[in-house]
């Protein structure tokens, strides 16, 4: 009976995976299927070292447009996350339903915060990755211009992290 329940358990875990997550697994790219978002879009977690490979596969599956890349902080002592929203863009006359998928890379804040840049696959990731670096300190390996985008070059820290302490060396100026 133990083997039957083990087999049933692994069948159930495969059934819980979304179709894109299953495709990635079938192509030898480890991933974790996350709960779909509030509008039913499949969410997948990818290890940082497999991101470039996973995104290349997604592009081959037809997800040919990086709609958005960004970051967020789960809270003090928790993960920093880099997320990616991909869609399929085609001739407007041929589109029946836009296909979408979301990837997330979870990074422990006390570990290496480096992940591959997607610039070589999607040029539109340029400023989006720079903004994520600027606000959260996530480094994008092989980015062509890894500089701050919004904050001055001498700014200390990562302003959108939830454990950020605002420095007192920038004073508010009188508006009058």
- In one word, what is the shape? globular
Are there runs of 5+ residues with pLDDT below 50, and where? 1-13
Distance between the termini: 78 Å
Q: How many strand elements?
A: 7
Q: How are helices and strands ordered from N to C?
A: HHEEHEEEEHE
Helix content class: 25-40%
Helix/strand-derived class?
alpha/beta
Number of helices: 4
Largest sheet properties: 5 strands, mixed
Look at the structure and give the mean pLDDT.
88
Strand content: 15-25%
Major beta sheet, strand line-up = 1-2-5-4-3
Output the radius of gyration. Answer: 19 Å
SSE blueprint:
Elements: H1 2-16, H2 19-26, E1 32-34, E2 42-45, H3 51-60, E3 65-73, E4 79-87, E5 100-108, E6 114-116, H4 125-136, E7 139-141
Parallel strand pairs: 2-5, 6-7
Antiparallel strand pairs: 1-2, 3-4, 4-5
Describe this structure in words.
With 176 residues, the protein is α/β, with parallel strands linked by helices. It contains 4 helices and 7 strands, in the order H-H-E-E-H-E-E-E-E-H-E. Strands 1-2-5-4-3 form a 5-stranded mixed sheet. The longest helix has 15 residues. The chain is globular and about 55 Å long. It starts with a helix and ends in a 35-residue tail after the last strand. The N terminus is likely disordered.
């Amino acid at each position: 009976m133990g083997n039957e329940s083990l087999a049933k358990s692994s069948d159930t875990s495969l059934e819980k995976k979304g179709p894109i997550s299953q495709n990635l697994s079938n192509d030898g790219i480890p991933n974790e299927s996350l709960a779909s978002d509030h509008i039913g879009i499949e969410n997948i977690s990818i290890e940082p070292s497999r991101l470039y490979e996973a995104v290349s596969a997604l592009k081959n599956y037809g997800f040919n447009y990086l709609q958005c890349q960004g970051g967020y902080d789960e809270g003090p002592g928790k993960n920093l996350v880099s997320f990616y929203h991909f869609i399929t863009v085609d001739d407007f006359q041929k589109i029946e339903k836009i296909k979408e998928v979301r990837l997330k890379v979870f990074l422990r804040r006390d570990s290496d915060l480096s992940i591959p840049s997607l610039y070589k696959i999607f040029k539109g990731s340029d400023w989006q990755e720079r903004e994520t670096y600027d606000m959260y300190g996530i480094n994008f390996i092989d980015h062509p211009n890894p500089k701050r985008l919004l904050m001055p070059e001498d700014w200390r820290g990562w302003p959108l992290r939830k454990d950020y302490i605002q420095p007192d060396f920038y004073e508010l100026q009188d508006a009058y």
